[in-house]
Amino acid sequence: MSAGSSPQVEEVLEALRPVVQGVAFWAAVVIPAILIVLIVTKPGLQGERGVWFLVLLVLNLIALVVGHRHNR
Fold it and tell me: What percent of the chain is helix, strand and coil (3-state, nearest 5)?
């Protein structure tokens, strides 16, 4: 944490870390299934479907980075 953080804020952040990592881990597990459904149900990712695909892909990458240490 930064030098100006209070001990209470650091305790709260430390307590939330496993929760955030767990949510990110399971999001990284579930998002690929959603991506597959987007591809299979209607081939082609033009327009809004393409935007959703890219958003979910980026969210999945973020979830992989944040949740990679879940339960370690």
Answer: 75, 0, 25
Residues with Cβ within 8 Å of 34's Cβ and at least 6 positions away in sequence, in order, are 56
Q: What is the CA radius of gyration of the chain?
A: 17
The answer to pTM > 0.70 is: yes
Sign of CA dihedral 57, 55, 45, 33: positive
pLDDT tens for 50-63 read 899 999 999 999 99
Do 67 and 28 contact (CB within 8 A), yes or no? yes
DSSP 26: H
